Automatic annotation (TrEMBL):
Keywords per UniProt: Hydrolase
GO cellular component terms, semicolon-separated: membrane
Any one GO molecular function term: aminopeptidase activity
The protein's name: AB hydrolase-1 domain-containing protein
Xref: InterPro entries: AB_hydrolase_1 (IPR000073), AB_hydrolase_fold (IPR029058), AB_hydrolase_sf (IPR050266), Peptidase_S33 (IPR002410)
Gene Ontology biological-process entries: proteolysis
Lineage per the UniProt record: Bacteria, Bacillati, Actinomycetota, Actinomycetes, Streptosporangiales
Residue span(s) of domain AB hydrolase-1: 37-278
Annotated SUPFAM superfamilies: alpha/beta-Hydrolases (SSF53474)
Length: 293
């Protein structure tokens, strides 16, 4: 079912489409390019697809499918917000686009979503691209160094961020708060890049964020998850930014567990490496995708 949301890219115009889930939630989605089918899973939880520039980088080697998760961005703002529902929604996207097999690419929390789907449905996944994730150990193992790195990267912006964090915020202040926080995710020009992330602005779904993060604490880092990763035969590319404030050693738990994995660390790049090092990102991911044809 088509809807009226044109999205301009560098060379084409994508027409947004509507994926309807089995419980009636309408998910925004779009696709562009030619080649191996790739489905992108955005981070958060509670954010929205910010991968227009990534799609432009890859559209000559892949058909890139983007979507907003339920409750996020241009999709219906309705729960429930659970891991099982997120996985079912991703399956609805695959079925809507008629993909027998796909490469899954996930960023940050979306990398966890892509990984979990690949573990559950290896027959539908020809490859996994795990971008700026945090591995499969509990979050507590890396949270403290992440917070120290965040404060150091924020520098003089930290006081204003802390002021906004500690009180109720207007919509404009909500956007300012997020831009300030996201600015720490870049090695250079953080505020400029974070403004790009927030444009257009759809508002963060904090209810979704809280619900799924609470479930993460109960299910992530288990011995069962490690065992499932050791048995996973899906070819995987891990892509990191060297200067991501989330410590890169946290990803070792996943890299050490997967039997078919390669890893690329991009120098002088942060949490969104395709933004700061687009040519290097395109080369690394493009090489991986050409082997999935």
């Amino acid at each position: 079912m088509a809807s009226e949301f044109p999205v301009e890219t560098a060379e084409t115009v994508e027409t947004a489409e509507t994926v309807e889930t089995d419980d009636g939630v309408r998910l925004w989605a779009t696709r562009v390019g030619q080649g191996v089918p790739v489905v992108l899973c955005h981070g958060g939880p509670g954010l929205w697809d910010m991968f227009g520039d990534m799609a432009d980088l890859l559209k000559n080697v892949a058909t890139v499918h983007r979507w907003d998760q339920r409750g996020c961005g241009r999709s219906d703002r309705r729960g429930p917000y659970t891991w099982s529902r997120a996985l079912a929604d991703l399956e609805a996207v695959r079925r809507y686009f008629g993909l027998e097999r796909m490469v899954l690419a996930g960023h940050s929390w979306g990398a966890q979503l892509a990984l979990r789907y690949a573990l559950d449905n290896p027959g539908q996944v020809s490859g996994l691209i795990y971008i700026a994730g945090t591995g499969i150990d509990p979050g507590a193992t890396w949270r403290e160094p992440y917070q120290r790195n965040f404060q150091e990267r924020m520098g003089g912006r930290l006081a204003r961020w802390a002021e906004l964090k500690g009180r109720a915020r207007s919509e404009a202040e909500e956007r300012e708060f997020c831009v300030l926080q996201w600015s720490a995710d870049f090695a250079d020009n953080g505020l400029e890049h974070a403004e790009g992330m927030a444009s257009p602005w759809f508002g963060v779904n904090f209810d979704c964020n809280a619900a799924i993060n609470a479930e993460d604490k109960l299910t992530w880092g288990t011995a069962e998850l490690h065992d499932r990763c050791r048995a996973c035969e899906v070819p995987t590319l891990i892509v990191d930014g060297e200067k991501d404030i989330r410590p890169r050693w946290s990803v070792n738990s996943l890299a050490d567990a997967l039997p078919r994995v390669s890893r690329v660390v991009l120098e002088n790049a942060g949490h969104l490496p395709w933004v700061e090092k687009p040519a290097e990102f395109r080369t690394a991911v493009g090489d991986f995708l050409t082997r999935r044809r």
